[in-house]
TrEMBL record:
Family the entry assigns: Belongs to the peptidase S9B family.
Highest classification ranks of the organism: Eukaryota, Fungi, Dikarya, Basidiomycota, Agaricomycotina
Protein name: Dipeptidyl-peptidase
Topology with respect to the bilayer: Single-pass type II membrane protein
Stretches assigned to the Peptidase S9 prolyl oligopeptidase catalytic domain: 662-861
Keyword presence, Transmembrane helix: yes
Organism: Papiliotrema laurentii (Cryptococcus laurentii)
Compositional bias of kind Basic and acidic residues: 37-63
Membrane-spanning segments: 83-105
Keyword set, alphabetical order: Aminopeptidase, Glycoprotein, Hydrolase, Membrane, Protease, Serine protease, Signal-anchor, Transmembrane, Transmembrane helix, Vacuole
Source taxon at top rank: Eukaryota
Length: 870
């Protein structure tokens, strides 16, 4: 038996990468990421810089099988880039106009000029319909608009957007060698702020979703000398290295202790300052434990340099009381035929609802003070503030430097109902609560406090301040807080739509760029001008669209560090493209990715008909996506099965104007099934009034909406009411089970993959945010569990789970099987995928799962479009 921990030098332990090679996915989503063209790790402390996509390939959220889902938290890691392909677009189908009437707002349906070739499962899984994308790795240390390129010889080159000259070489690969003269095969790199050193990552070993261990080398550009941060070890023990934002001081975490090497002492064999000395298997300094990595910071570090490089803030986490969860792996190899007589067991600290969470405190270390006194105790301080929650009843949800000496901290209670925003000034004894969160604070209702890393300091402006995303009359909007201790937001945006992210800040032009869901299934890029210091009190929200809001569109954007340039990525509803644009009017505007290959491919194949509309449920307007068979006969002469694809997690979004083609397109085109997606109550980007009803009652109102949608669909003359099914993965699997459990008589078939069956089995931070603790909401935990198992004997039912799922534990399925057995419910089908994690993608399992589900649908339903008799 081996115990999981972040590796210590004495006990390296077992790493997840040794037994389950895939990053851990989660129940839900977030931002979009692209396929890799350049690699550069975000090793410096820049929370808003692009992440290295080689090691942070979550991208947009998927619910496990590759279907795009967006959410403020849940984000399953996406599958192989080749599998995730794409479609959605196309001319209105006149025959559907009458059918769709009365369903609420209907966005245009699109149907390009498809061909006659049939889609096969091979096409879905071999990348035939994949979208080609590029990513630009902006180099913030150089002039604005500078980005890196890795050439075929692995040299690192720097190129500038507006400069057509040859790229200049930053690092020659042949000069990056170890003490023996052997080349160092690096996997990621990072440049110091003064551009004097490059940090190289080697021997990369994946841990969880974001975290890893690696060895690191420093390469001095002036003389091309290269030396290790620490003597390399196998397995490696460094979990994070972070450059200071000025100069070239380096902080790093090894064996869960935090160290720093001052810039003027950075050299071969330099003795680092040891900031902490209590790191262990259960004490984490400067890096998150499992649950904070997954559910809170969504990153692999909890160390933050102040803008002037004089102070380091960090979190200390004590998970000694967090209970262990044991995972068993039967075969750590990629070969299913390789025998392993004994299991490999992995213990991980996994807090579940109502059980102890890690105890988290905030600390600072003044490098300036230490260098003056050389007394560590004088340089360290634990940050406290009057009115803080007890350490066992709080989550430190966000930490951000908003000035050289101003640290902003957000805390919420375990149930995410009340919270504080604290401003701490370096050198002062305590912090001060400057904003209140929750019902009596900014949210103003009984819902949960949204989590996120949204605070953006305003550097270079005439006054100190920051921008944040804050509820404004029930919708998330952009707010300015200035001065730093202001408790009253100055609204930069308003209206019945939501800001989803802050994309960039241009200090020279006094502009903030952001992305908004306006309407909710779109994403558009906007800019807003910050008010002058003497005009703050009278400021009225005003903003300008930078994308065409008159047409449906789903955009994301990557701004250069000083926001002078941006890569604009159009994601749908038509075939995606990308443009590289200079923010100044009349500047560079270049098409850098057109996806001509995909356009040509789509013209050869049959294409489903896509419609985005809305339906009503109990007075709520819900977004709906329809993927319909080509040549759909709406006369009623032919009948079609309908399969509802569900996700539905709190704050998530499945219906959008993204361009998608995946397994569902295959089912629509080749099996003639009608595919429906409805974002019910609890889902995101339509305001808190739609999200809040599911509070403390998961699995109820979401199910009501799915049942009502299905019942309404069966009124269509071309829908076969005897063939109505629902399926989902992760939270969607839970939704499928709860919908079948409701025994509405509407559904005749269901499929679930990796489902939650009882929220007592999921992690505490996520679950308690929406369900409170079991002590606070005992009845809610009972009703939200899947208990009425007799209903599953009345439908055709299939489900699957990976035995190595460290996210939604296999215990969910084991318990569910036990209930079915005790109630003598038979006729269902189940398949365990050995050692697979939440994505079910090792040893050919991902495609096999879809082939198995397809065969089940064919067996129970046959093909759609059958002629109606009688």
């Amino acid at each position: 038996m081996q115990q999981y921990s972040r590796l210590s030098s004495d006990n390296p332990g077992i790493q997840l990468g040794d037994v389950a090679p895939h990053p851990r996915p989660s129940l839900s989503d977030s931002d979009d990421s692209d396929d890799v063209i350049v690699y550069r790790d975000n090793l410096e402390d820049e929370p808003f810089a692009e992440k290295d996509r080689r090691f942070n390939d979550e991208g947009r959220m998927e619910d496990g099988e590759g279907y795009s889902v967006e959410s403020r938290r849940l984000r399953p890691a996406r599958k192989s880039r080749r599998v995730l392909a794409v479609l959605v677009g196309i001319i209105a189908l006149a025959a559907l106009v009458g059918v769709l009437a009365g369903w609420g707002y209907s966005a245009p349906s699109y149907a390009g000029k498809g061909g006659n070739k049939h889609i096969t499962m091979d096409h879905i899984f071999n990348g035939t319909f994949s979208v080609d994308t590029i990513s630009i790795d902006w180099v913030k240390e150089a002039a604005d608009g500078t980005y890196s390129v890795i050439d075929s010889d692995h040299n690192i080159l720097l190129k500038t957007v507006h400069n057509d000259t040859e790229p200049r070489i930053l690092v020659e690969a042949t000069k990056v060698v170890d003490d023996h003269g052997d080349p160092i095969h690096w996997s990621a790199w990072s440049l110091s702020a003064d551009m004097e050193y490059v940090l190289f990552q080697t021997d990369f070993k994946k841990q969880w979703r974001h975290s890893s261990h690696a060895n690191y080398y420093l390469h001095r550009l002036s003389d091309s000398s290269t030396f290790p941060v620490l003597d390399p070890t196998i397995p490696p023990i460094i979990t994070k290295c972070i450059w200071s934002p000025v100069g070239h001081s380096l902080a790093y975490v090894s064996a869960n202790d935090l160290y720093v090497i001052p810039g003027n002492e950075l050299a071969r064999g330099a003795e680092a300052i040891r900031i902490t000395d209590d790191g262990s298997e259960v004490i984490f300094n400067g890096v998150p434990d499992w649950v904070y990595e997954e559910e809170v910071v969504e990153a692999d570090f909890t160390t933050w340099w102040s803008p002037d490089g004089n102070t380091i803030a960090y979190l200390r986490m004590d998970e000694a009381e967090v209970k262990n969860y044991r995972l068993q792996f039967y075969n750590p190899s990629d070969d299913a035929f390789e025998p392993h007589p004994y299991t490999t067991d992995l213990d991980m600290k996994y807090p579940k609802p109502g059980t102890p969470n890690p105890l988290v405190t905030v600390h600072t270390f003044s490098l300036e003070e230490y260098l003056a006194s050389r007394v560590a105790s004088r340089a360290k301080q634990q940050v406290t503030w009057p009115g803080s929650f007890e350490v066992d009843n709080r989550i430190i949800s966000e930490v951000n430097w908003v000035s050289d000496n101003g640290l902003l901290i957000k805390e919420v209670d375990r149930a995410a109902r009340v919270g504080n925003v604290v401003l701490f000034k370096v050198g002062e004894r305590d912090g001060t609560v400057v904003r209140k969160l929750g019902k009596e604070g900014e949210e103003g209702d009984d819902g949960w406090i949204d989590h996120g890393q949204n605070v953006r300091p305003l550097k270079g402006f005439g006054t100190e301040g920051y921008v944040d995303i804050v509820p404004n009359k029930g919708y998330n909007h952009l707010a300015l807080f200035s001065p730093l201790d202001s408790s009253v937001p100055v609204w930069l945006t308003d209206g019945e739509w939501e800001v989803t992210s802050i994309a960039g800040v241009d200090a020279a032009k006094n502009l903030v760029y952001f992305v908004g869901a306006n309407p909710s299934i779109d994403r558009h890029v906007y800019s807003t001008t910050l008010p002058a210091a003497d005009a703050v009190d009278n400021h009225e929200p005003a903003f300008s669209a930078m994308t065409n809001t008159a047409a449906p569109g789903y955009f994301d954007v990557s701004f250069s560090p000083r926001a002078g340039y941006y890569l604009l990525s159009y994601r749908g509803p038509d075939v995606p493209y990308q443009r590289l644009i200079e923010a100044s009017e009349g500047g560079v505007d270049e098409l850098v990715q057109s996806n001509d290959r995909l356009n040509a491919t789509l013209s050869e194949f049959m294409r489903p008909l896509i419609s985005r509309t809305t339906i009503e449920s109990d007075g709520y307007t819900l977004n709906m996506l329809e993927i319909l068979p080509p040549g759909l006969d709406t006369s009623g002469r032919k009948r079609y099965p309908v399969l509802i694809k569900v996700y539905g997690g709190p704050g998530s979004q499945t219906v959008s104007n993204r361009f998608e083609r995946d397994w569902h397109a295959y089912l629509a085109c080749e099996k003639k099934y009608v595919i429906i997606v409805v974002d019910g109550r609890g889902t995101g980007y339509k305001g808190r009034a739609l999200r809040n009803p599911v509070m403390d009652n998961l699995g109820h109102w979401e199910v009501v909406d799915q049942v009502k949608a299905a019942a309404e669909l069966t009124k269509r003359t071309y829908i076969d009411s005897s063939r109505v099914g629902i399926w989902g993965w992760s939270y969607g699997g839970y939704m499928a089970l709860k919908t079948l459990e409701a025994d509405s008589g509407v559904f005749t078939l269901g499929m679930a993959v990796a489902p939650v069956t009882n929220w007592l089995y999921y992690d505490s931070v996520y679950t308690e945010r929406y369900m409170s603790t079991p002590q606070q909401n005992p009845d809610g935990y009972v009703t939200s569990a899947v208990n009425n198992v007799t209903a599953f004997g009345k439908v055709d039912f299939l489900w699957a789970h990976g035995s190595g799922d460290d996210n939604v534990h296999y215990a969910n399925t084991a318990s569910f099987i036990d209930k079915l057995t005790q109630k003598h419910v038979r006729g269902w089908r189940f398949r365990m995928f050995t050692d697979s994690n939440h994505n079910i993608n090792n040893r050919e399992s991902y495609r096999e799962l879809h082939e198995w589900m397809t065969a089940f649908l064919e067996e129970k339903w046959g093909r759609g479009g059958t002629v109606r008799h009688g």
